[in-house]
Design brief:
- The chain is an alpha+beta fold.
- The protein is 28% helix and 38% strand.
- The chain has 1 helix and 4 strands.
- It has a 4-stranded mixed beta sheet with strand order 1-2-3-4.
- A hairpin with a 4-residue loop joins strand 2 and strand 3.
- The longest helix has 17 residues.
- The chain is globular, with a radius of gyration of 11 Å.
- The N and C termini lie far apart (23 Å).
Length: 60
């Protein structure tokens, strides 16, 4: 079994925090080699898993 280290994030109703969680954080985590970024989107009632960082970018 492989264990990965990642970080969950819950979207915020604050526009600045929401922007950061959706647009800046996935790339920031990818750039440092963190393999998974989990975004829990309260507005859409959805979960988005960003994974497999490559070249400072992370897929969704």
């Amino acid at each position: 079994m492989t264990h990965t280290t990642g970080r969950p994030s819950l979207t915020s109703h604050d526009p600045d925090t929401d922007q950061r969680d959706r647009n800046e954080m996935p790339g920031g985590y990818a750039a440092t080699g963190i393999p998974v970024y989990l975004l829990i989107d309260r507005d859409l009632c959805a979960v988005c898993v960003h994974s497999e960082p490559e070249g400072g970018n992370i897929g969704a």
